[in-house]
Amino acid sequence: MTNLLEKSLIVGFSVFSLISLLGFITPYIDELSKYNEGDSNLNQVILFMEEIDYAINYVIENNAHSYLNDIYYPENLNFSTFDFFIKFEYILEGKIDTRIIEYEFKFWPRSYEKFNPGVYKIQVVFQDSMIDIRIA
């Protein structure tokens, strides 16, 4: 009889411990999911910047060709082209981060702001000894 009583006390204490542990962890599950969301947004921003960089380098190496492809424009990203560089600005975890990439050739001055996230066509052309980036 004592053996059965000991087993039931151990099972009861285990269930109590498990419920207490879950009670402590539950508030942090939402924070963990938000942390993982920010990480995927950063990956999308990095992929976008790498695609733009690849397109520009392709056009620089092949002056007679243009680059045309589909690209996913991520959320909270703006970029502008100036004389010899591109300036990317994106919001990550409530902070504005900036990345600037310089090139050997001039760009047509353009600003790409407040695009809705989604898939767009990107065309990069080399005309009048300047690089032009078009997103539609």
List its traits:
single chain, 136 residues, alpha+beta, 4-stranded mixed beta sheet, 4-stranded antiparallel beta sheet, 44% helix, 36% strand
Quick description:
With 136 residues, this protein is of the alpha+beta class. It contains one helix and eight strands.
Helix content: 40-55%
Return residue spans where pLDDT drops below 50 for at least 5 consecutive residues.
none
Q: Which strands sit side by side, in order, in the main sheet?
A: 1-7-8-5
- Overall mean pLDDT stands at 87
What is the number of beta strands?
8
SSE string, helices as H and strands as E: HEEEEEEEE
Main sheet: strands, sense, barrel: 4 strands, mixed
Domain module tally: 1
Note down, in words, how this protein is organized.
By secondary structure, this protein is an alpha+beta fold. It has one helix spanning 2-61, and strands spanning 67-73, 77-81, 85-92, 95-102, 106-107, 110-112, 118-127, 130-135. The chain has a 4-stranded mixed beta sheet with strand order 1-7-8-5, covered by helices on one side. A 4-stranded antiparallel beta sheet has the order 4-3-2-6, covered by helices on one side. A hairpin with a 2-residue loop joins strand 3 and strand 4.
